[in-house]
Amino acid sequence: MESFAQPSRRPVSAAGVALFALIAVAGLYYVKWSPYYHRAFVAADTHSIGHSILSGTAALPVAPSWQAALDYALAYGKAIWQALVLGLLLGSAVQTLLPPQWIARVLGGAGFRSVAAGGLLALPGMMCTCCAAPVVVGLRQSKAAPGAAVAFWLGNSVLNPATLIFMGFVLGWHWTALRLTLGVLLVFGGGWLVNRRAAPAERAVAEAKLDALAASDAAEGNVFGRWLALVARMALRLVPEYIVLVLLLGAARAWLFPHVGPEVADTLGWIVAFAVAGTLFVIPTAGEVPIVQTMLSFGVAAGPAAALLLTLPPISLPSLAMTARALGARTQALLVAMVVAVGVIAGLAAVALHF
Asked: For residues 233-270, b (16+ Cβ closer than 10 Å) or e, as one string?
């Protein structure tokens, strides 16, 4: 099987692997699995999981301002900070606590098998795009194939099982079917396309980096010390740019979504506009469900709402900034185009199916 990385051997630390498993299982249970299990019952009983983070209880978009930026950043940060910390811990642990040959063997292939593995491994994570971004960085540094890393990244938010359940109870199961069908296409088809378009030169660079990584691992000493140091480095590099971009998007959300009423009709122009806005904007996990519910209640047509349902979760400007070095401009441009295209397809499908 052709691979983006030929793994060099490194001694497997049983303690490191055990620590990684403990962080993943305990962290996901506390941050994701347990809260979402209880929220599913709330969604079934009330047909709601809360207010839209875009508008809160207001009936109109908030005017652009620094106060609006701060308010949105605080609301968003409160919703995701625990998952972001977990993402940083896991993203650094992937690089230091797991043997790179394991990751290269499962996720390093150039074919569809590594993409399928990346997408399936994403399902228990259920993270938003920004919280999953540090793990994507860690996977690429450990020489996972770009398509596998992309499938893992998109799968966390687009195929989130809890979100699909919330969606069914809140919006209706036809919306869940639309999201699941096009989500599978985006996650696995998109990952496969990214692998197909990877340049041969990238594979050679990946092999050289993996060899250098293996050599440095042997020379740097204690694995747990390297892990803690890497957590700090990742936080210092990723978090500041993340905060700045969330603030800017919070200030600009009234420009991105200037209309949320009956004037937003089932036309191609509105569908494309909402698909682009959804691709750029950043939301917490499952935030698209109350956003779409609120917009439908305000009279927004089903086509633009469906475009948001597919484009809000997968990527955003902050998460693209966080993964820029790991994925490269070429892959990110392809990702943006794919997400917008799937959003437009979702909007047109919702119109054709009379949602």
From this structure: ebbeebeeebeebbbebbbbbbebbebbeeebebeeeb
